[in-house]
């Protein structure tokens, strides 16, 4: 089994504080800089799995970097440099407390809600007569925010966001506009690779100069769901599951093993063989969505590699 990076305990040049998220560790540095380390942690149902996935952090970071660069003509983003395969450095921002989720197809959470009989999701009406993985007439925006108690995401409507003052109306209109533009570009990129961008989420922040920018990640397998274009229509017609590249296959495996992050449930054992298959699926998505061969970074000592690369970046 290849080495993975699960925990981070760095002391970078100019470091002021650190926040450890479910997947990324975020270091606040001097000079209004933020450094994010994409770890190999795997999160599903808002729970971090006990074992890491080889190369997952590198894959997330490199896809996000490429997609940021491929969309910066449409939407400004926080990214300045990627000095290491697992590291991104950018401008520190004040993040909005909403995730802008956009769905082109009725899959995942939307499909589960639909099956439960719901036809309104985050204030948006879903048409009658749809089946799982059908395409919506138009992409729908279904935002999420952190629950007031705990770390779970909760669905929220545009109206509720504005009513509670989570985001000012003027800013929220920009977030919606940016979300639709990014999803359109992401869909075009995916289509050029024989993929369908099913749904995704974007996070935004405001710089100290008051500019709204895209932050965190974009179009990665952790934030997005992809189907293969080839065979999509046939599988829908035959009521078959879609062949997909996303973290949904992990969620389905967990559900099949009686785990959905509910109280009292224990994460099922993940064998080395299963973890290897998860890693291979992530590599498969990287190569499909970027059109590039994945080059595995040296994982003999990931922490030392990161420290050396970051130090070299700041010395330049």
The gist of it:
The protein is α+β, with helices and mostly antiparallel strands and 316 residues long.
Description:
With 316 residues, the chain is of the alpha+beta class. The chain has two domains: 15-93 and 247-315, Phosphorylase Kinase, domain 1 (2-Layer Sandwich); 95-237, ATP-grasp fold, B domain (D-amino Acid Aminotransferase, Chain A, domain 1, 2-Layer Sandwich), CATH 3.30.470.20. It is built from eight helices and 18 strands. The protein has helices spanning 56-71, 108-115, 158-163, 169-192, 232-237, 248-256, 272-290, 302-315; strands at 15-20, 24-29, 33-38, 43-44, 47-48, 79-84, 87-91, 94-95, 100-105, 120-121, 124-125, 135-141, 144-146, 153-155, 195-206, 212-215, 224-228, 244-246. Strands 8, 9, 12, 15, 16, 17 and 18 form a seven-stranded antiparallel beta sheet that branches. Strands 1-2-3-7-6 form a five-stranded antiparallel beta sheet. Strands 4-5 form a two-stranded antiparallel ribbon. Helix 1 (56-71) runs parallel beside helix 7. The longest helix is centred in the middle third of the chain and has 24 residues, at 169-192. The model has no long low-confidence stretch (mean pLDDT 92).
